[in-house]
Amino acid sequence: MTKITVKGLDIGVGAPKIIVPIVGKTEQELVNEAEFLTQIDFDMVEWRVDHFQHVDDVEKVKQTANKLHAIIGHKPILFTFRTANEGGVYPAPVEFYINLNKQMIKTGLIDLVDIEVFTGDQYVEEIVELAHQHNVLVIASNHDFDKTPAKDEIVARLRKMQDLGVDIPKIAVMPRSREDVINLLAATAEMKDKYARKPLITMSMAGKGAISRVAGETFGSDLTFGAAKNASAPGQLDVKELRQILNILHRSLA
Ligand SMILES: O=C1C[C@@](O)(C(=O)O)C[C@@H](O)[C@@H]1O
């Protein structure tokens, strides 16, 4: 059984659930994005805080999190600082990154936190321990915006994340060929069938990989990112169309 439930959202059963990123630079832009989300059909919001102009000021981050929570706190909130190494916009030392995540875990304003697995095993384990003490789930992530590792390497990274005790392993890779997309899907299916004890998130990015963002129920990815106003990575589909496709595929699989 790989199901996880957060704020009433069942992850790991049925059609993949939709995460919508918000990427505003200012608090007002973020509030606008959050208010827009209240009118649309989605499952979880991801605050990509590395885009926020005051990300270096933890108190301001908390204040803004408070506002976002008041608007969309009825849905699960994923807090993500994407490092510049893995496609984020704000270069920061590891101590900053860990401290920000730890402070936010303690606020009660977030439901999930993203930690990049290559930050280091000890950091990941510290985050997992603290998060679980505060009822926050942990997504471990890895991104390769340049290429797609071999299938066995993708499986090995997902297994490593799971072994570190995280709740949801995630990998996003860039395809250079059709074979790369097939490898990502094959790695997902192998992980799901042979090793996964928890839900997974995998995707092949850009237009070439977009098929992977809709095919999760077939291959084993339990969550998928869709764009409302602004995409946070190449290849994200419009959230409304994404839901339609996921529902169509779900019906044909049922
Ligand atoms: O890790 C991911 C996945 C992602 O990179 C994507 O390709 O949809 C988008 C990011 O915002 C998120 O943190």
How would you portray this structure in words?
- With 254 residues, the chain is α/β, with parallel strands linked by helices.
- The protein has a single domain (4-253), classed as Alpha-Beta Barrel (TIM Barrel), CATH 3.20.20.70.
- The chain has helices at 27-37, 58-72, 94-105, 121-133, 151-163, 178-195, 206-209, 211-214, 216-219, 239-253; strands at residues 4-6, 9-11, 17-22, 44-48, 77-80, 112-116, 137-144, 168-173, 201-204, 223-227, 237-238.
- It has a nine-stranded parallel sheet.
- The model has no long low-confidence stretch (mean pLDDT 97).
- Residues 21, 46, 48, 80, 82, 114, 141, 143, 170, 172, 203, 205, 225, 232-233, 236 line the site of 1,3,4-trihydroxy-5-OXO-cyclohexanecarboxylic acid.
Short description:
By secondary structure, the protein is of the alpha/beta class. The chain has ten helices and eleven strands. It has helices spanning 27-37, 58-72, 94-105, 121-133, 151-163, 178-195, 206-209, 211-214, 216-219, 239-253, and strands at 4-6, 9-11, 17-22, 44-48, 77-80, 112-116, 137-144, 168-173, 201-204, 223-227, 237-238.
Q: Uncertain spans, ≥5 residues at pLDDT below 50?
A: none
Q: What structural category do the secondary elements indicate?
A: alpha/beta
CATH superfamily: Aldolase class I
Principal-axis shape equals globular
CATH class: Alpha Beta
Assign the CATH topology: TIM Barrel
Order of helices and strands: EEEHEHEHEHEHEHEHHHEEH
**Spatial gap, N to C terminus:** 18 Å
* Helix fraction by DSSP (H/I, runs of at least 4): 40-55%
**What would CATH call the architecture?**
Alpha-Beta Barrel
Number of helices: 10
